[in-house]
């Protein structure tokens, strides 16, 4: 982590640092430290990230689970997040073709999470432009699964009864 010098992200529950490994590879090291509740968020994100493999979801490459601190190690995605590309004048402006491609790939990743494999269904819980990171080819990866939940709740998946009009969109 180069002594935790280079912060590449800060969230409500953790800080993400750039790491350079002995083999010259780069990684993103997400550090949770503090309360028992934060440790539970770490455990949840670790458990969820170990259950899938998809080209548009950031890959977990390692972790460390200590009593007071949890650390997740992810592949490093170099081009920052979608929020920066959409709203920062210093970033490369995305063409409409690139934007449509990113939206399509994110939708594909969400479909994978929701429909899953082996009956696994995951609700990300925090989809936003800053949780979509872009690689050197501007291919998106979903990240930050700290609020993710396994399985659909009745609030997310409409009941299968034939009475009434089925819900469309999100509750609230």
What does this structure look like?
This protein is an alpha+beta fold and 172 residues long. Strands 1-2-3-5-4 form a five-stranded antiparallel sheet, covered by helices on one side. It has a two-stranded antiparallel ribbon with strand order 6-9. It has a two-stranded antiparallel ribbon with strand order 7-8. The N and C termini lie far apart (41 Å). The chain contains three helices and nine strands. It has one domain (2-150): Transferase(Phosphotransferase), domain 1 (Orthogonal Bundle), CATH 1.10.510. The chain is globular, with a radius of gyration of 17 Å. One of its GO terms (cellular component) is plasma membrane. GO terms for molecular function: ATP binding; transmembrane receptor protein serine/threonine kinase activity. It comes from Opuntia streptacantha (Prickly pear cactus). Keywords: ATP-binding, Kinase, Nucleotide-binding, Receptor, Transferase.
CATH architecture: Orthogonal Bundle
> Which CATH class?
Mainly Alpha
Which superfamily, in CATH terms, is the homologous superfamily? Transferase(Phosphotransferase) domain 1
In total, how many beta strands?
Answer: 9
Give the averaged pLDDT, no decimals: 84
Provide a quick synopsis of the model.
This protein is α+β, with helices and mostly antiparallel strands.
Give me some keywords for this one.
172 residues, alpha+beta, Transferase(Phosphotransferase), domain 1, 5-stranded antiparallel β-sheet, two-stranded antiparallel ribbon, 9 strands, 23% helix, globular, Kinase-like_dom_sf, Receptor protein serine/threonine kinase, kinase, Prot_kinase_dom
């Amino acid at each position: 982590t180069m002594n935790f010098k280079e912060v590449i992200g800060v969230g409500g529950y953790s800080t993400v640092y750039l790491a350079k490994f002995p083999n010259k590879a780069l990684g993103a090291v997400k550090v949770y430290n503090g309360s028992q509740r934060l440790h539970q968020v770490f455990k949840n994100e670790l458990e969820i990230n170990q259950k899938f493999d998809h080209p548009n979801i950031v890959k977990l490459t390692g972790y460390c689970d200590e009593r007071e601190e949890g650390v997740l190690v992810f592949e490093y995605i170099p081009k920052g997040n979608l929020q920066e590309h959409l709203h920062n004048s210093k970033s490369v402006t995305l063409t409409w073709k690139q934007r449509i491609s990113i939206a399509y790939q994110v939708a594909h990743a969400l479909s994978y999470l929701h429909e899953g494999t082996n009956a696994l269904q995951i609700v990300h819980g925090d989809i936003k432009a800053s949780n979509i990171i872009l690689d050197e080819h501007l291919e998106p990866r979903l990240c930050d699964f700290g609020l993710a939940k396994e399985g659909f709740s009745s609030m997310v998946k409409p009941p299968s009864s034939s009475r009434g009009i089925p819900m469309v969109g999100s509750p609230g």
